[in-house]
């Protein structure tokens, strides 16, 4: 029996080769500490997370906390606040992110109420080292440590640290690196707008109608391309860029690694007791990018560059527009069949230059450049890649061939060389602080991981972190049940034409998502080894689908179906996951307050919704009643910005979460039953949301526990209320806990082959779900053939 759990009273069920059914379950009360035991985790030889004390396999399921951590306090991406203020990057503060400490428990308890047991905790390099190289913000570090201590004291959650970035920095349209890194690379961020070296929402004339997902195009604009190329490959491709006696690659990497290591070291010094029981690991850089490596011809857009939004320059065109040479650049939009040209636009009529104009930044940050790397001089011209006077591209394949070995350079080369070398240095720095901490290794997004099977780089505390987003839902912000695209198949160049990647019908779309995640898992086992667990550290669906229709009519059916499809794919592959995201300041107008994204599972603006429960933007009277009416009231405060800082405190002390879910969107797709602890190995796990039916098959012969341990299944009460639940199992006894985070504990036979359990609703409730499902199926079929006709025509 787990420490701290009262001895349950079992409902005895005789063993039988046929399934046995029991509807009258004996209940017992459990302290609502959440679903994680907070005991030490390890891994097994089959890539499972294992609870060390019992040998049970554990599924990690949780959420990223919190998207606001990407931004300084009281700053967003949609408010310019004046050019001067925006570019005062040294004086910003992240203290108070992601939310005030006094409000932490409401957010933590809400996350636990979803049945989640894991948090991917977001920090940024900028938050730690924004003032200048080697100058750490100890106030921010202290604040963050206090928050991690609160999470530890709350119990029930594992945490791993995510040093987050998107397209390098806030100042290149994303998040992550401090402003001084841009100056170190010799770039002038105030020129990004006119040169279009980066699209930044703060500079947009109409931030509310900022083009969907245009921020991602910064990966193909010169600022981000230059910075990532210098960070990972500066020694090879920018050897003349020497700063303070070392190549720009080593300078940037050294500071990034040192900043995260400093944060982690301070955490261990200040609160060592949170490590391993709560904070279990540290992830490598979020979504690393190869920059320009692998570009075969800088005068052309690569054929595999499917992401083309708005102006889409070739690198050669970018070099011209960033060196005061106006250029006509083609514009594109995304279609189902890939990018489509929409016209062209003259870029940089003002004749601005991307590079620094004077040594002001060098003097401020004490940068000492090699005499060969002069201020204001284009580093691409410095390395003979092009001639600005003759407007001639001298080395179009410069980044496709290793200058010393002549070896072909592509994404596989980058992953297996540049990325791995950086990861080894990063791992060494973190493990020097704590040799037993988990290392969460994240290769480039949706790419094949490096070949490291049986390599010393991999050990028993290594996790492969992958991201997965359904490309069509992401780019179009809609859940199309009639057709979709095999996103991973396109990335793996499986189709000669995107039209062949189309998948028709919602059933096949769901299967396609499951197949894609299954392929990613197979790639991990092949390249990293079967013992390395795979954790999807980001996946999710936008909530502002269909031009934000749900915000006015309350109908979150599309979002629910989309998230259910993701859940189906994850469960079918027995994958752990941390969803993107939880945003404590989310609102309908600005979403997650970052580039008009809206992925948060919870929103302040959905709290007062009075819609039907079928529409799943949950009102409190849909939920079961709390045993205690004692409630903290909600208070609101107004910041100097135009958004409300929500200070919600409505956790019911009696063990109920009657109103803590209020504001949660697509709740029935989020609150999913799943096996938290398994005494054996999961063979099959499937949840039918429409029919409210959960099925689990366990291989009981693969038990690694020295003692008899229980299999524990999260059974969300909002769907499986004790008065409506029906349970069938192949052997043993079980008990349903009468706790706020409802758990079914199953004491099944071991070393007895496959063991099965089914959890569903009583017959009358199941019939109602089936009728609703059939009507929705008819709606789908009516429009399917029309949709096919429209696509082909």
TrEMBL record:
<dbReference type="InterPro" id="IPR017853">
    <property type="entry name" value="GH"/>
</dbReference>
<keyword id="KW-0378">Hydrolase</keyword>
<feature type="domain" description="Glycoside hydrolase family 5 C-terminal">
    <location>
        <begin position="672"/>
        <end position="759"/>
    </location>
</feature>
<feature type="domain" description="Glycoside hydrolase family 5">
    <location>
        <begin position="108"/>
        <end position="178"/>
    </location>
</feature>
<dbReference type="Pfam" id="PF00150">
    <property type="entry name" value="Cellulase"/>
</dbReference>
<dbReference type="Pfam" id="PF18564">
    <property type="entry name" value="Glyco_hydro_5_C"/>
</dbReference>
<protein>
    <submittedName>
        <fullName>Uncharacterized protein</fullName>
    </submittedName>
</protein>
<dbReference type="InterPro" id="IPR052066">
    <property type="entry name" value="Glycosphingolipid_Hydrolases"/>
</dbReference>
<dbReference type="InterPro" id="IPR001547">
    <property type="entry name" value="Glyco_hydro_5"/>
</dbReference>
<dbReference type="InterPro" id="IPR018087">
    <property type="entry name" value="Glyco_hydro_5_CS"/>
</dbReference>
<dbReference type="GO" id="GO:0000272">
    <property type="term" value="P:polysaccharide catabolic process"/>
</dbReference>
<keyword id="KW-0326">Glycosidase</keyword>
<dbReference type="InterPro" id="IPR041036">
    <property type="entry name" value="GH5_C"/>
</dbReference>
<dbReference type="GO" id="GO:1904462">
    <property type="term" value="P:ergosteryl 3-beta-D-glucoside catabolic process"/>
</dbReference>
<dbReference type="GO" id="GO:0050295">
    <property type="term" value="F:steryl-beta-glucosidase activity"/>
</dbReference>
<dbReference type="InterPro" id="IPR013780">
    <property type="entry name" value="Glyco_hydro_b"/>
</dbReference>
<dbReference type="GO" id="GO:0005829">
    <property type="term" value="C:cytosol"/>
</dbReference>
<comment type="similarity">
    <text>Belongs to the glycosyl hydrolase 5 (cellulase A) family.</text>
</comment>
């Amino acid at each position: 029996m787990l420490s701290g759990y009262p001895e349950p009273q079992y409902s005895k069920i005789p063993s039988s080769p046929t399934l046995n059914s029991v509807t009258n379950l004996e209940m017992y009360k459990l302290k609502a500490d959440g679903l994680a035991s907070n005991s030490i985790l390890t891994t097994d030889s089959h890539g499972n997370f294992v609870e060390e004390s019992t040998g049970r396999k554990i599924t990690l399921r949780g959420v990223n906390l919190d998207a606001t951590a990407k931004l300084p306090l009281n700053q967003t991406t949609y408010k310019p606040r004046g050019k001067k203020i925006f570019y005062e990057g040294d004086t910003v503060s992240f203290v108070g992110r992601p939310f005030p400490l006094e409000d932490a428990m409401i957010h933590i308890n809400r996350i636990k109420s979803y049945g989640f047991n894991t948090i991917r905790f977001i920090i940024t390099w900028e938050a730690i080292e924004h003032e200048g190289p080697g100058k750490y913000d100890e106030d921010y570090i202290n604040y963050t440590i206090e928050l991690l201590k609160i999470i530890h004291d709350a119990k029930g959650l594992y945490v791993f640290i995510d040093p987050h970035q998107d397209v390098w920095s806030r100042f290149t349209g994303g998040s992550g690196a401090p402003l001084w890194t841009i100056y170190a690379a010799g770039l002038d961020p105030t020129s990004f707008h006119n040169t279009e070296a980066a699209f930044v929402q703060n500079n947009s004339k109409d931030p509310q109608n900022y083009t969907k997902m245009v921020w991602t195009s910064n990966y193909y604009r010169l600022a981000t391309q230059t910075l990532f190329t210098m960070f990972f490959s500066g020694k090879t491709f920018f050897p003349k860029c020497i700063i303070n006696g070392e190549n720009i690659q080593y300078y940037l990497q050294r500071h990034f690694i040192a900043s995260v290591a400093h944060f982690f070291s301070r955490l261990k010094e200040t609160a060592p007791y949170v490590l391993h029981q709560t904070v279990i690991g540290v992830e490598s850089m979020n979504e690393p990018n190869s920059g320009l490596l692998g570009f075969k011809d800088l005068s052309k857009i690569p054929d595999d560059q499917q992401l083309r939004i708005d102006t889409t320059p070739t690198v050669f065109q970018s070099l011209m527009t960033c060196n005061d040479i106006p250029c006509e650049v083609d514009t594109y939009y995304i279609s189902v069949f890939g990018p489509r040209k929409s016209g062209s636009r003259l870029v940089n009529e003002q004749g601005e230059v991307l590079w620094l104009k004077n040594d002001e930044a060098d003097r401020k940050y004490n940068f000492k450049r090699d005499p060969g790397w002069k201020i204001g001089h284009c580093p691409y011209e410095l390395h003979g890649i092009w001639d600005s006077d003759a407007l001639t591209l001298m080395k179009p394949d410069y980044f496709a061939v290793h200058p010393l070995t002549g070896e072909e350079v592509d994404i596989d080369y980058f992953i297996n060389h540049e990325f791995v070398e950086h990861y080894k240095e990063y791992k060494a720095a973190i493990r020097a602080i704590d040799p037993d901490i988990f290392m969460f290794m994240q290769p480039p997004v949706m790419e094949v991981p490096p070949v490291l099977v049986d390599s010393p780089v991999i050990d028993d505390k290594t996790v492969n972190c992958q991201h997965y987003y359904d490309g069509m839902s992401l780019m179009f912000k809609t859940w199309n049940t009639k057709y979709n695209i095999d996103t991973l198949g396109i990335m793996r160049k499986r189709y000669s034409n995107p039209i062949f990647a189309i998948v028709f019908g919602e059933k096949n779309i769901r299967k396609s998502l499951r197949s894609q995640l299954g392929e990613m898992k197979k790639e991990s086992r092949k390249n990293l080894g079967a013992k390395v667990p795979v954790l999807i550290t980001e996946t999710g669906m936008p909530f502002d689908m269909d031009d934000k229709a749900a915000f006015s009519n309350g109908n979150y059916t599309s979002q629910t179906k989309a998230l259910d499809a993701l859940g189906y794919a994850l469960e079918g592959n027995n994958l752990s996951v941390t969803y993107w995201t939880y945003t404590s300041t989310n609102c309908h107008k600005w979403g997650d307050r970052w580039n008009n994204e809206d992925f948060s599972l919870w929103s302040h603006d959905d709290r007062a919704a009075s819609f039907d429960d079928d529409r799943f933007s949950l009102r409190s009277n849909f939920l079961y009643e709390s045993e205690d009416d004692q409630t903290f009231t909600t208070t609101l405060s107004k910041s100097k910005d135009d958004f409300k800082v929500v200070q919600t405190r409505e956790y019911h002390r009696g063990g109920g979460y009657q109103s803590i879910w209020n504001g949660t969107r697509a709740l029935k797709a989020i609150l999913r039953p799943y096996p938290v602890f398994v005494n054996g190995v999961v063979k099959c796990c499937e949840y039918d949301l429409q029919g409210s039916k959960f099925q689990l098959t366990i291989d009981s012969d693969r038990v690694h526990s020295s003692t008899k341990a229980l299999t524990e299944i999260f059974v969300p009460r909002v769907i499986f209320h004790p008065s409506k639940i029906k349970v069938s199992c192949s052997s043993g006894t079980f008990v349903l806990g009468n706790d706020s985070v409802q758990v079914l504990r199953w004491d099944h036979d071991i070393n007895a082959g496959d063991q099965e359990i089914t959890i569903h609703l009583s017959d009358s409730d199941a019939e109602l779900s089936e009728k609703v499902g059939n009507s929705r199926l008819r709606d789908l079929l009516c429009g399917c053939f029309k949709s096919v006709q429209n696509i082909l025509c």
